[in-house]
Specification:
- The complex is a heterodimer.
- Chain A is an all-alpha fold.
- Helices cover 60% and strands 1% of the residues of chain A.
- Chain A has one domain (41-590): Cytochrome c oxidase-like, subunit I domain (Cytochrome C Oxidase, Chain A), CATH 1.20.210.10.
- Chain A has helices spanning 21-26, 33-38, 43-73, 80-86, 97-133, 141-160, 191-220, 233-264, 290-324, 331-345, 360-372, 374-388, 397-420, 422-428, 432-462, 468-486, 489-494, 514-544; strands spanning 275-276, 281-282.
- Chain A has a two-stranded antiparallel ribbon with strand order 1-2.
- In chain A, helix 5 (97-133) packs across helix 9 (290-324) and helix 10 runs antiparallel to helix 12.
- The longest helix of chain A is centred in the first third of the chain and has 37 residues, at 97-133.
- Chain A is globular.
- The model of chain A is unreliable at 1-27 (pLDDT under 50).
- Chain B is α+β, with helices and mostly antiparallel strands.
- Chain B folds into 2 domains: 23-114 and 125-155, no CATH class; 163-326 and 339-352, Immunoglobulin-like (Sandwich), CATH 2.60.40.420.
- Chain B is 46% helix and 16% strand.
- Chain B has 8 helices and 10 strands.
- In chain B, strands 3-2-1-5-8 form a 5-stranded mixed beta sheet.
- The radius of gyration of chain B is 30 Å and the shape is elongated.
- The chains are: A mainly alpha, B alpha+beta.
- Chains A and B meet through helix 5, strand 1, helix 9, helix 10 and helix 11 of A and helix 1, helix 2, helix 3, helix 4 and strand 7 of B.
Chain lengths: 608, 353
């Protein structure tokens, strides 16, 4: 801990000699509002941009789910206020069928891509990679800035699609053709679908710019002594995440481009033998296969769920170790299992397609590979449990969410074993069992990881703390609420209740869950309100939160806590610290923690 | 009015929570940070164990509440295999679930912060890692073994004597086709489809094999108890899915690419009504793949009957071709109004809606 100096308040010291070489010598780098807050190239500001955009998206996405839950819980009721907000989409206070599907589609797209990919990776990769590796900034701050602005552009296009007269895309977040390809088959497949594709294309560009930057930063800009095996697990997780994204997003983009061709140029990549009843016409397409799209989509779609969950795993590993005051158990096994998950992520996509008429033999290969993923996942869970064992646990809000993450990940992960086994998937496919599974294992879990990260690094981001009382309320209501919402859905799924139905009352096999659906809707609304409490806490605390007065409030070993309380562009004043050990020397030799910057002592036991 | 009231309550609730939260922060400054931290830590530690206990009770209670509502016994031979798989998997994952959740929250409670405790520096143990790599791998091998054994049985070739039925999905209904006496389906092509000309499937009427084909729309399909049925599944427009929850079967309907499934129904509809003690029981066919705005209404009904009843029903059916010859007269003698044999007429009506 050599070269930190306490600099209270905002302090704009430019130390990025490499980047701002010229200006630095000429004048005191005056940052204008535009360069500091809007077109900023500082990774910390870009992180906040991603985070706040992500929060806004999360509110919108969650609000959509509350709206369609209203329909599911009260299929016969009418809510006049809906017509006030949504106009003809909720004529007479009842959400129209087409708009229900638009809401479901947007909810999925927004949360999977804009919140849990852009918002989560964008925030923490930007924030932690330079800070925890000891870099002044990203390898290319300019590309990093572009990455955010492409994300912003994608957001604008996606939002604008909510306002076109035929409505936004409504074919589900997977947008399977032919439904998504033919405007005559669905209102949402008209202009809304084009905007959806354009927005997603921009999103892919953003994701690639970000991902390439993260990878090159991690490989090239580590400070002296920071070997790959000394990196905190957050960085490992973000590293694998970026690789997954860079390798799989282009495939998705190609899939979308072919879809665009089918939509507008009468090519037949995905379409064949189609007769549209509403216009009584046989379409000209012949020879294509809708299943091709599903392969292309899920080649990204499956890695995508790991793109979402790996950063959360990394954040949780870090937060858990810091607050258990113990090293993370089995560091190399944790890295190895991340690696194994990343590899297997590319080899399991067809388990989403067991009932598409896939060759049964091919299906069996995917069963085997899918269930293999349970092994590294189990290793991770056991390692987290052992990390808690004989620790000295501080229940900071971040730690609470980290523990909640593990609980959710276990619950949702185990049902993956059900769905990954093709013979059971025949019954459970596209039922509420699937909804329960992925919401728990990648929706709620990833959010818990994200919350753990936000609560833990908020003091570093804003130099203030979030309010603890609100944080505790937020955690307990969210944990209990999430289980109350999603646990009973397993039973609906076991009964074969299909997803994406907006009214079950005419179905003799499924209407018995009417009361349960009402209950879920009520809990979902309460949980949503609690998230608003968090959002309030977040924005309020930026300005009025308790100030951070010590440089290392959690007593953590990693490099970000050696920077000034409010670091300027360039992060460290003076030289970048050198690293001498791994990131997890907690409770070693009777000492509470030993920072990574401290050289190995003469009498010290060898590092892990 | 009610809305404004709700919003007012919400804002009021927020304000109260906010005031309490602020007050707590001031109190903590007065009490000293360490003391507040210890107090909060104890509360959260207690909550951990309370959550575990109440959660496990809740899981049990939830199971008691809903176990009777999840469709009862499987109604096909494949379904029985799938149910057995579900139980095996439930047993294994259930045990793992309880053990890991108990450990998680118990450790959190037990090892909560204490002044006296020194955390145990325990960075790794290769033996443990190997143990918990190998044990899950063994259990998963068992599950994969069972799963694939059944998977190949279920997706394997249907028995030779299986009854063939073609089922075609369209926005938003199902059309069934029986091959007729010759047991061969006639040729069809999608460009021939015309709901106006009584040709919902695009039959090529020149093909003799198709002239005795029986086409049933109105979403009613008849099967024979104990007789294997081989479904050939098609779609006319977008991707649909033949979902048969009671038989535990499911298969996508993909335009341009026929898919198949087969199974043997074990109980007639009447038997299931008695078994489930539910006079309204029907084998419902649900569309399980998002197919457009009325996806949730795309219901078919499977009638499982014994051979005699099936033969009687079949005898009443007229081939689609013969109805074409006579033309769609509204006065066509409908022998049995419930069977809806006048497929084409129904078809036009539904598509014009």
């Amino acid at each position: 801990m050599s070269n930190e100096s306490h600099i209270p308040g905002q302090h704009e010291v430019v130390t990025t000699h490499e980047v701002h070489h010229d200006e630095h010598h000429v004048h005191h780098h005056h940052e204008t509002f535009i360069t500091k807050y809007v077109f900023s190239q500082d990774h910390k500001m870009i992180c906040k941009q991603f985070l706040i955009t992500g929060i806004i998206w999360a509110i919108l996405g969650a609000l959509m789910s509350v709206l369609f839950r209203l329909q599911l819980g009260y299929p016969d009721a009418r809510f006049p206020f809906l017509e006030d907000i949504l106009g003809h989409w909720a004529k007479g206070g009842k959400i129209q069928d087409e708009f229900y599907y638009a809401l479901v589609t947007m909810h999925g797209t927004v949360l999977v891509f804009f919140v849990l990919t852009g918002g989560l990776s964008g925030t923490f990769a930007n924030f932690l990679i330079p800070l925890q590796l000891g870099a002044r900034d990203m390898a290319s701050p300019f590309l990093n800035m572009l990455s955010y602005w492409f994300f912003f552009l994608a957001s604008v296009v996606m939002i604008s699609s909510l306002f076109v007269s035929t409505g936004p895309a409504s074919g589900g977040w997977t947008s399977y053709p032919p439904l998504s390809a033919l405007g005559d088959a669905s209102q949402g497949s008209k202009a809304g679908m084009d905007l959806w594709i354009v927005s997603m294309a921009l999103f892919v560009v953003s994701s690639l710019l970000g991902g390439l930057n993260y990878i090159s930063t991690i490989l090239n800009l580590r400070t002296k002594g920071m070997s790959m095996t000394r990196m905190p697990l957050t960085i490992w997780a973000l590293f694998f995440t970026a690789i997954l994204g860079v390798l799989s997003f282009p495939v998705l983009l190609s899939g979308f481009i072919l879809l665009l061709f089918d939509r507008h140029m009468v090519t037949s990549f995905y379409l064949s033998d189609i007769f549209i009843a509403s216009t009584q016409t046989a379409m000209p397409y012949e020879g294509g296969s809708p299943i091709l799209y599903q392969h292309l989509f899920w080649f990204l779609g499956h890695p995508e769920v790991y793109i979402i969950i790996l950063p959360a795993m990394g954040l949780v590993s870090e937060v858990m170790s810091v607050n258990a005051r113990k090293p993370i158990f089995g560091y190399m096994a944790m890295v190895g299992s991340l690696f194994a998950i990343a590899i297997l992520a590319f080899l399991v996509w067809a388990h989403h397609m067991f009932v598409t008429g896939l060759n049964p033999f091919l299906g069996s290969v995917f069963v085997l590979l899918t269930l293999l993923i349970a092994v590294p996942s189990a290793i991770k869970v056991f390692n987290w449990l052992t990390t808690l064992w004989r620790g000295n646990i501080r229940f900071t809000p971040g730690m609470l969410f980290a523990i909640g993450f593990v609980s959710m990940f276990i619950s949702g992960g185990l049902t993956g074993i059900w769905l990954g086994n093709s013979s059971m998937d025949i019954h459970l496919h596209d039922t509420y069992f699937v909804v329960a599974h992925f919401h728990i294992v990648m929706g709620v879990s990833a959010f818990f990881g994200m919350f753990a990260g936000i609560y833990h690094w908020y003091p570093k981001m804003y130099g203030r703390y979030l309010n603890n009382t609100m944080a505790y309320i937020h955690f307990w209501v969210t944990l209990i609420g999430a289980y109350l919402i999603f646990w009973p859905m397993h039973y609906e799924g076991l009964a074969g209740m299909p997803r994406r139905y907006l009214d079950y009352s005419s179905w003799a096999s499924f209407h018995q869950f009417g009361g349960l659906n009402r209950f879920i809707t009520i809990v979902a609304t309460i949980v949503f309100a609690t998230q608003l409490l968090f959002v309030f806490n977040f924005f309020y605390s930026i300005f009025k939160g308790r100030r951070v007065v010590t440089q290392n409030p959690w007593g953590a070993t990693t490099l970000e806590w050696t920077t000034p309380i409010r670091p300027g562009h360039g992060n460290w004043v003076g030289e970048i610290p050198e690293v001498h050990r791994w990131a997890y020397d907690y409770g070693k030799d009777g000492r509470d923690f030993i920072p990574q910057t401290e050289p190995i002592g003469a009498n010290e036991k060898l590092p892990h | 009015m009610g809305t404004i009231f709700l919003i007012a309550i919400l804002i009021f609730g927020f304000l109260i929570v906010f005031q309490i939260a602020k007050a707590n922060e001031y109190v903590s400054v007065l009490k000293g940070e360490k003391k507040t931290f210890e107090q909060n830590n104890r509360i959260n530690g207690f909550m951990m164990i309370a959550f575990l206990v109440l959660g496990l009770i809740g899981v049990y209670w939830c199971n008691e509440l809903f176990k009777g509502k999840i469709l009862g016994d499987a109604a096909s031979d494949h379904g029985e295999k799938i149910d057995l798989m579900l139980y095996i998997t439930l047993a294994i994952t259930g045990v793992v679930f309880v053990i890991t959740q108990v450990l998680l929250f118990w450790f959190a409670f037990k090892y909560q912060y204490s002044d006296k405790r020194k955390p145990y520096y325990y960075p790794h143990n290769n033996k443990l890692e190997v143990i918990w790599t190998v044990i899950p791998a063994i259990f998963l091998t068992v599950l994969v073994g069972f799963g694939l054994y059944y998977w190949f049985k279920i997706t394997g070739a249907p028995p030779k004597d299986a009854m063939q039925i073609e089922i075609t999905g369209k926005q938003f209904s199902w059309i069934g086709r029986y091959p007729g006496k010759d047991k061969i389906f006639g040729k069809k092509h999608f460009r021939n489809i015309s709901d106006d000309n009584n040709n919902a499937l695009g039959m090529l009427w020149d093909d003799k094999a198709g002239q005795d084909d029986i086409i049933v729309s109105g979403n009613d399909i008849y099967l024979v108890k104990g007789k294997p049925v081989h479904l050939i599944i098609n779609s006319r427009d977008v991707v649909h899915d033949v979902g048969l929850a009671h038989f535990r079967m499911k298969m996508d309907a993909v335009p341009g690419t026929p898919t198949t499934m087969w199974f043997t129904p074990l109980y007639t509809t009447a038997e299931m009504k008695a078994k489930e003690n539910n006079p309204d029981f029907e084998y419902e066919l649900s569309c399980d793949q998002m197919c457009g705005s009325s996806h949730y209404t795309m219901k078919g009904v499977i009638h499982v009957v014994d051979q005699l009843e099936f033969d009687l029903w079949m005898a009443k059916q007229k081939s689609a071709y013969s109805q074409l010859q006579s033309g769609p007269q509204p006065g066509t003698p409908a022998k049995d109004s419930t069977t809806k044999t006048t497929a084409a007429v129904q078809e036009i009506k539904s598509s014009n809606n």
